[in-house]
């Protein structure tokens, strides 16, 4: 090997290391930014934006397929049709007559404007959906509100904090003895 060759090897090896280190630093600097950008578009960010204030409750996936607990009607001025549905934990607890509801229970109250059936004069059918209201049982996380987290959504978006402050007060005042839940299983 010629001296030049040896020199070349001696100099190029540290150069490679320096380049590798620079590359590593650049990558490590970029990755957090790339992750931030990816998350901003991703489900994590969306979940925060769609979560209720105070409680961080979101609309549960698949609730439209959940089992019916009971329908309800609301007189004027709201004048709505409603249905309370629950996840399997809720249905099991209802069927066993179990109170308080276990952690993991989710209750959803769906609501619609009343609409006259286009086919049959005396029949009322659901019109436009108005609100989706959610109660999630987590006795530790929501210890201050009877173990329930609340969420009220209009067009998939949570309503303001002021409205979320009213939920527990009314449920506590009228339904405390039933674990803060009004709805009974429909016969
Ligand atoms: C002024 C009283 C009142 C307030 C305030 C209130 N609710 Fe209710 N809620 C009721 C009543 C009464 C029912 C029973 C079903 C019905 O009449 O529609 C109910 C039912 C529910 C149900 C079905 C389970 C159950 O308890 O029967 C959910 C879920 C719910 N409310 C969520 C909420 C959320 C979320 C808020 C706050 C944004 C809220 N509620 C505020 C009175 C209230």
Structure, described:
This protein has 187 residues and is an alpha+beta fold. The chain has helices spanning 3-41, 43-49, 88-96, 161-175, and strands spanning 67-74, 80-86, 106-116, 124-137, 148-154, 157-158. Strands 1-2-3-4-5-6 form a six-stranded antiparallel β-sheet. The chain is elongated. The model is unreliable at 1-7 and 41-45 (pLDDT under 50).
Instruction: Compute the average pLDDT.
Output: 88
Ligand inventory: heme C
Q: Which fold name corresponds to the CATH topology of the largest domain?
A: Chalcone isomerase
Q: Shape from CA axes?
A: elongated
Structural class: alpha+beta
Number-wise, the strands total 6
Topology as a string of helices (H) and strands (E): HHEEHEEEEH
CATH class of the largest domain: Alpha Beta
Separation of the first and last Cα atoms = 95 Å
- So, the CATH homologous superfamily of the largest domain? Cytochrome P460
Summary tags:
187 residues, alpha+beta, Chalcone isomerase, 2 domains, 6 strands, 37% helix, binds heme C
Can you summarize this structure?
With 187 residues, the chain is α+β, with helices and mostly antiparallel strands. The protein has helices at 3-41, 43-49, 88-96, 161-175; strands at 67-74, 80-86, 106-116, 124-137, 148-154, 157-158.
